[in-house]
Queue: 2 jobs
Job 1
Amino acid sequence: MNEAVSRAGLIIREKEPANREFPFPSLSPATPTNAFFVRTHFPIPAIRAKDWTLTVDGEVERELRLTYDELLGLPATTSPVLLECAGNGRAQLVPKAKGLLWDTGAVGTAEWTGVPLSAVLDRAGVKEGGVDVILQGADKGEVDDPRSPGVIHFERSLPLAKAMRPEVLLAYKMNGKDLTPDHGFPVRAIVGGWYGMASVKWLTHVTVTATPFEEFWQSLEYAYWKRERERPTLARVTEVQVKAQIARPGLSEAVPAGKPYRVFGAAWGGGSDVAAVEFSTDAGKKWAEARLLGEAVPFAWRLWELPWDVPEATGRYQVMARATDTEGRTQPEKHDADRRTYMINFVFTVEVEVV
Ligand code: MTE
Ligand code: MO
């Protein structure tokens, strides 16, 4: 593969707006900030912390306008949370998909510090009848899509019940330092358990609505076909689907024949922990159970490893990993076309060369 790489070793998928992918073979328990994937739709807005305010309005008793210092004065929590772009793995789709062709690196786990959104909503007092909470970013532009309504902001909503959960933060630190401009300085949402598009960066407006919010970013983009009624309808993409990814061996890696090799990777689910990871070296005929490392941390990934007694026989091996969560959900063998080019968690094949 011939790819442009940034100074920090990220693969540049698009220069402007900035879209950069983490090289998954360099997996570590916590992704360093400068190695964390970047997904943007518009130019990065330059916001000074002293000029930033968060407006909370809509179906609330009291409209709020919080300053950066006021936000930092509220009780905060810190925990590792995984972000995965809903299009992560898109390069694996056949036929070739439109959109950014992420390989396996539009995912990372960082430690986020912030104030639970619920604390701010409680201050504002959500009125009876509030159903959706819109999170709007300061970034805006025109989307290259005939269905897009001219210049728009990036925004997504959460149902009120999710917005009130403790894993939803107004985050201002990533890995112990102020957010970088790429990752949403000065304040972004972090929505544990949901795909990355919910974690709105450069957050400036929170609006509670009395009706479900349906617009471009959740009824056209980041939406999938749901078959619950008579006809399929486009529903918003929400929860992260269970998935295991192999970091080593990497794609086309040359593995020495007849020697022990340490296979390792990461696995994650949305709202549930990973119960098991299995690994196959014969395209899914036989599976061996991997060892899960460390402790399960809700909404973060779990690293896993497995010793592989690499055979003497040289040649190409089709290796695979698959995860199952604590609710018994396991990865599918094929991508469901109703998901369009999102929520890609079918079991990938990695071709490895034993030499
Ligand atoms: N927030 C704003 N304001 N604008 C964006 O383009 N992209 C979203 C989300 N938040 C986006 C945004 C998407 S699709 C993803 S996957 C995550 O940010 C990526 O977060 P990161 O760039 O910090 O990795
Ligand atoms: Mo994304």
Job 2
Amino acid sequence: MPAGEPIPVIPRPVSAESVDGAPFTLRPGARVSVAGAGAGEVAELLLAELASDCRRDLTVVHEPPAFGDIAIVIAEDEVPEDARAEGYNLAVTAEGVRIGAASAAGAFWGVQTLRQLLPVECASDPLTIEPVIIRDRPRYAYRGAMLDVARHFFAPAEVRRFIDAIVLLKINHLHLHLTDDQGWRIQIERWPNLTAHGGSTGSDGSAGGFYTQDEFRELVAYAAARHVTIVPELDMPGHTNAALASYPELTPSGVAPALYTGSKVGFSTLQADDVRTWEFIDDVVGEVAALTPGPYLHIGGDECLSTSPGEFLRFIARATAIVADHGKTPAGWHEMGKSDALPDGTIGQYWDFLTPRESAGDETLSFVRQGGSVIMSPADVSYLDIVYEEGDRLGQDWADGPTSIRQSYEWDPARIVPGLGDAHILGVEGPVWTETLATIDDVEEMVFPRLAAVAEVAWSPAPADTADVESVRDFGDFAPRLAALGAHWAAAGTNFRRVPEIAWH
Ligand code: TNX
């Protein structure tokens, strides 16, 4: 890479220094030499990814590296202490590539950097990489994408494809919005009608669907093998029409509402003062907690416009306590911060704008006051279903849309809610809501490229401490790297929007 040109990697690494010397050449039949616990598994994933990226026939060996090998070494002292959880070093020289990390996750993220450094032109022989030394570690522990499988359902194979695409950006949490007014998507053995009836349709009268518990377990395992934690969301007490339609005893009248296929929000609610509600919640939370090895269980709590304020508070106190009783840390949208009875450590997810409106900022700080931390998903920059341009076929525009790629890049999580800084920010998440997105191609068109911007905000170091975030997050540096990434997406068959601000190759 010529001096001065940004290294073509997203998220931008902490440091990348070009070094003198001949490039590395990846020869057919090159070996991946592994050492340390977990390195073999990371190498197998590299092989699978390179096979689909570039059809190279590599073999894994448990031997010290020879000339021309890719080495993956996992050992405690490979990286400084503050980089042990997920950091890595990557050295590229004529002798070989060496990825060093203290954890399998760190090595896996190093592999994602290597994939972006390799030329896209698989046909071109030889494949070479200019010499470089990269040191890298994430700013935030939680880097998320949220997929709404409730409005439109996406089958397990489509979710796996989504996971494959997000790991290239070092996203390590996939929040699955499993239930909403339009559909219930996770099998609950004690309440089978939730999926039999409540999962039978979706937005715009789409076909619906749901994950059996076995399918869900397989998804969790597929994600975990790629260092992605699944965060399941059961949205309550609002956004529950599909549940109410399936079990009339959850409604005050005892009459089930019809299934709903429109896009309104705020019209449904569970009853906080009804004993049946709590049997229901204990069962569904218990079953989903048992399916989930990850620490978090998200219970929504957003847009409860049909729940009285007092009932909302009683509901949130009891529902979060149930989550904690089942051994999980509760998470919820920032409205849950209205409650001052949250279990210690409850995670809030901020979805208001870059400039907080009404009580959104205070509700968010409430999680911190109660010993918890916050995930930042400001809707006007990180909601991936908001239109790119006026008049788009896909997406919604309520969150101050359109949202350009530049807007989704030029912001900082620690400069949104006054008083909320990095010490209390667990991370950043880009949600994609799917009222208007019927296919996984539609989803990808909305998610890419903007998730690349959100991923860099979540991973790369904080911009220098100046008041003007636009001047320190350098879109001019990001744009050519994004163009290079587009070539990888095209080669991998990932759909993305060729936004006009970027000179796509
Ligand atoms: C808001 S903000 C929602 C979702 C919608 C989305 C559409 C929040 C937590 N909920 O119910 O799908 O807007 O953009």
